[in-house]
Design goal:
single chain; 294 residues; Beta-Lactamase; Arc Repressor Mutant, subunit A; 13 helices; 5 strands; 12% strand; DNA binding; Sig_transdc_resp-reg_C-effctor; DNA-binding response regulator; transcription regulation
């Protein structure tokens, strides 16, 4: 079912918010605006970003938005209770590999869901009806957004909206994860390592040779060159010979923004075209060496 005019407008709001998030240099995730807009667009009484491990029966809430004042400990314990009671969203997304937004009623069936203990738990907390918008997660785990309705179930139009905004949410989540990895790598770079010239010292006394250090991760090397996580993602796609429009589509950014990132890479690496940029990045260990396969 197609989205109505109102939900198309809500989608435009979410799209603008996603672009804003992807362009912000903030080191910490800012989920509050995303969750608020998601709750508004889907008329939800509460929304959370949760991650659970089905086989280990564990789970936690990464971020949430609800009218009630609740603690992290309460939400984490509530998530674990849903896991142990066999919540259909958890079981479905952790065991099937399906990534389609679905309601608990769709997965379990209306009568079995309404008679389940997990439904009773949901009814007594944030809302009797639940909707999942999954994000990529390892096998046996589930990660994504969980939304609640107090009275009525989610409509077909709302499900269409959830499917429409899902790629935006996946991109935001991937952006925050990549930035966290990059920040961890940058934190391991010794102070003054980037841009420092050679230091000449007197020869040291002969000693047993020390073992060669392990090669630095590519993200760490990129940080040394002043390359941001988004620029590093663009560089990786440049190495696959993707044009700017394809890079923009893959990263859910505008072609103009993709061109800006490419120009920034030229300045960072002292190059003037794509081929020399990729070759320079390979020589610095930012990209894998070229394949020798014929």
């Amino acid at each position: 079912m197609a989205m109505g005019t109102a939900l198309w407008r809500d989608y435009a709001y979410m799209l603008g918010l996603a672009v804003s998030v992807l362009e912000r240099p903030d080191p910490e995730p800012h989920w509050s605006l995303v969750l608020s807009e998601l709750a508004r667009g889907l008329h939800a009484s509460a929304v959370s970003l949760s991650e659970v491990h089905h086989t280990k029966r564990t789970g936690r809430v990464v971020a949430w938005k609800c009218a009630d004042e609740v603690s992290q400990e309460y939400l984490d314990s509530l998530t674990v209770r849903h896991v142990r009671l066999g919540n259909p969203l958890v079981e479905h997304y952790a065991t099937t590999g399906d990534r389609t937004p679905r309601s608990a009623t769709q997965i379990r069936g209306e009568r079995p869901w309404l008679r389940s203990e997990s439904h009773s738990l949901a009814r007594g907390t944030f809302g009797a009806h639940m909707l999942g918008i999954p994000l990529p997660a390892p096998v046996g785990a589930a990660r994504g957004f969980v939304l609640h309705h107090v009275r009525d179930d989610f409509t077909e139009e709302e499900l269409a909206y959830a499917r429409r905004v899902q790629p935006l949410l996946v991109s935001i989540d991937a952006h925050y994860r990549a930035r966290a990895q990059w920040c961890e790598a940058a934190a391991r770079v010794p102070a003054g390592a980037a841009g420092s010239g050679p230091v000449r010292t007197a020869p040291a006394p002969a000693a047993a040779p020390a073992p060669a250090p392990a090669p630095a991760p590519r993200a760490e090397r990129a940080a040394e060159q002043g390359i941001t996580p988004r620029q590093f993602a663009v560089l990786t796609l440049l190495a696959k010979a993707l044009p700017a429009t394809a890079i923009a589509h893959r990263l859910h950014i505008s072609p103009r923004t993709a061109h800006k990132h490419i120009e920034s890479l030229y300045r960072r690496l002292g190059t003037c075209d794509r081929l020399s940029t990729v070759m320079r990045a390979q020589s610095l260990g930012l990209l894998p060496p070229p394949s020798m396969d014929c």
